[in-house]
Specification:
Elements (H helix, E strand, L loop, with lengths): L1 E3 L6 H8 L3 H7 L1 E5 L1 H10 L3 E6 L7 H6 L4 E3 L2 H8 L7 E6 L13 E6 L5 H13 L4 E5 L8 H7 L8 E5 L1 H11 L2 E5 L5 E2 L8 E6 L8 H6 L2 E4 L11 H15 L2
Parallel strand pairs: 1-4, 3-4, 6-7, 6-11, 7-8, 9-11, 9-12, 10-12
Antiparallel strand pairs: 2-5, 3-5
């Protein structure tokens, strides 16, 4: 169902533009999704879309737009720029309903679950989710005070992986520990002190791996609960790695060892 919006003052345009702010995302129960590939992933994933905006329909989408029960709004570039807050937005955007996954009912039989502890940078968070997806993680747990999963920068950085994995948000340390105990997942955490070289360890078939904040690392509360503290061996003089890079190395190491 194709309609047209031309005004920057249109109520739906203003509502969509407000979703750049977390409190409005929570109030509306919606987040903004940009780009042809990401929208295709959302449409195929079972997530609920409320409407779509476009300046130019991608090739082959004309029939889809005309036959869809969802409203598809053709808009001029300035309207799409207002909605997305980017100077050069991709030609398609959508409003998608927020989803709240329930950790208590999550029961993978084996594999790795990535746990992120107060990761604040949206780009790092999105990249870690995308990497977890690429390397076969079973899910991602975002502990309290981690960046908002539905921040537009996070959503863009996941490159559609948001729709491939169960992702659990706002999880407390206590809830994580209880889940690990119930599901018999070993709790591993990255650390600088008292940690073992991760390349010399045998990875359990069921492990929850915790990466800590860019500035502080894994919290002392979590380190105290960890079954194993791990570190990446460093041959050079750099004192640390970007958390997204470190996560990629650790996830790759897990994927090699959990076969």
């Amino acid at each position: 169902m194709i309609q047209t919006i031309t005004s920057l003052k249109n109520d739906l345009v203003k509502r969509a533009a407000s979703l750049k702010v977390k409190k409005y995302r929570q109030r509306e129960g919606l987040f903004l999704l940009e780009g042809k590939r990401a929208v295709e992933e959302a449409l195929a994933s079972g997530w609920k879309l409320q409407c779509l905006f476009y300046t130019k329909l991608p090739a082959g989408w004309e029939t889809r737009a005309q036959e869809s029960p969802l409203p598809w709004y053709e808009v001029p570039l300035p309207v799409l720029q207002k909605i997305t807050a980017t100077e050069d937005p991709q030609s398609v955007a959508a409003l998608v309903e927020l989803k709240q996954e329930d950790l208590a009912s999550f029961a993978p039989q084996q594999g790795l679950v990535l746990v992120l502890d107060e990761i604040r940078d949206p780009g790092n968070l999105g990249t870690l989710i995308r990497t977890a997806d690429a390397l076969g993680a079973k899910g991602v747990v975002l502990l309290e005070n981690t960046a908002d999963l539905y921040n537009p920068k996070v959503v863009r950085s996941t490159m559609g992986s948001l729709f491939h994995l169960p992702i659990f948000t706002g999880v407390s340390v206590e809830a994580l520990a209880a889940w690990c105990q119930k599901r018999q997942f070993a709790l591993w955490a990255t650390a600088l002190e008292g940690a073992e070289d991760v390349t010399k360890l045998q990875w359990p078939q069921k492990v929850a791996l915790v990466l800590g904040s860019e500035a502080e690392g894994v919290s002392s509360q979590l380190l105290a609960r960890a079954d194993q503290k791990v570190k990446i061996p460093m041959a050079g003089h750099a004192e640390s790695l970007n958390v997204a890079i470190a996560g990629g190395i650790l996830l790759f190491e897990a994927s090699r060892n959990q076969k």
